[in-house]
Structure formats: structure tokens, C-alpha cells
Amino acid sequence: MYNGQGVTGSSEALGGAAWNVVGHTYTPKLLSDNAFIWHAVVPPETFVPPHVHPMQDEWIYVLEGNLEVDFGYEEGNVIANRAGPGDMVRMPMGVAHGVYNRSGKEATCVFGVSPSGKIFELFGALDGVTDPDELVRLSARHEVNFLPPPPGAE
Questions:
Q1: DSSP SS3 for 108
Q2: Are 115 and 84 in contact (CB under 8 A)?
Q3: In terms of pTM, does the model score above 0.85?
Q4: Residue 52: how many CB atoms within 10 A of its CB?
Q5: Residue 92 half-sphere exposure, CB side, CA atoms within 13 Å?
């Protein structure tokens, strides 16, 4: 764990790590038993498919650009919530959500989860993984559950 005092500089990452996860670049900034925080560069037209964190609350603080976070999967009434610079997105434990950059421009943000759980290890395992089935399998082993594709999805 990297729970000691100090500063993680703007161009630094814990342990020098940086991961390519679903086309996003994730750079870890803080890791303790209680929280994991990472900087993310989210290219246009990329997304994190709908998923659930059964053991963690998650949040996103948008620095630049725009994201949409969809909720309502459980009720079958999905609603996109738009977030721009300075906005905080809250994704409570157990609530399904998907994160999308539909803006046509890059977005940067800070993600966090509490408690940290197995997300740090998950990102290391997912670095560069492009096979959707493998992404789902590895995520489930690290306490993140992806929703099945909706009926009729290709």
C-alpha cells in the first residue's frame, strides 16, 4: 500500500504505474485501505460499460471536458447524467452505472473508490486487455460486476 505521507506530483504515478483500461489512461495517485484515487484521460467516444461495485462507493470529479454517467439500469429506465468541469459524479455502492465520453473531445477527471478494495490490482490485470469476455472475467475476480448486454445488442 502507498498510504504514507507525501505528494504525488502532477506528472507522477504511484509506483510509476499507468494503465490502458478500455482505451482510457489511468494514473494512480493515492492508495490506502480506505481509498484509491486515480487520474483518467478519457478519449472521445470511449466508455466503461455498465457495471456495479458491490463493495465500494465510487465518484468522478471532472477536470476538463464532458462525461455522461448513465444510471437506471436496474429499473430499465436508463438516464444519462451530464457532467462538466468542476462537477462531481456520485456512484453509490451497489448501483449500476456506465461512464461515457460522447462529447467528441477528450475529457480528464479524477476517479475514486472507497474502500480501495481490489481496483488497483484490477487495473494492473486489465492493462491493455481488449477482449470483452476477459475484461468481464477479470473484473468479477476483483469485485466489479459488468451487466450483460441488453437484448438485441451485437
A1: strand
A2: no
A3: yes
A4: 20
A5: 2
Question: pLDDT tens digit string along 7-31?
Answer: 899 899 998 899 999 999 999 999 9
Tell me, what DSSP letter sits at residue 117? T
| DSSP strand pairing (97-100 vs 57-64) | unpaired
> How far apart are the C-alpha atoms of 41 and 58, rounded to whole Å?
17
Q: Which helix (H) or strand (E) holds 88?
A: strand 88-91
Conformation bin of residue 94: beta by default, left when phi > 0, alpha when psi is -120 to 50: left
CA distance 42 to 34: 25
List, in order of start, the domains of the chain with CATH numbers.
Answer: 18-143 (2.60.120.10)
DSSP 15-75: GG--EEETTEEEEEEEE-SS-EEEEEEE-TT-EEEEEE-TT-EEEEEEEES-EEEEE-TTT
pLDDT digits (tens, 9 = 90+) for 116-148: 999 999 999 999 999 989 999 999 999 999 998
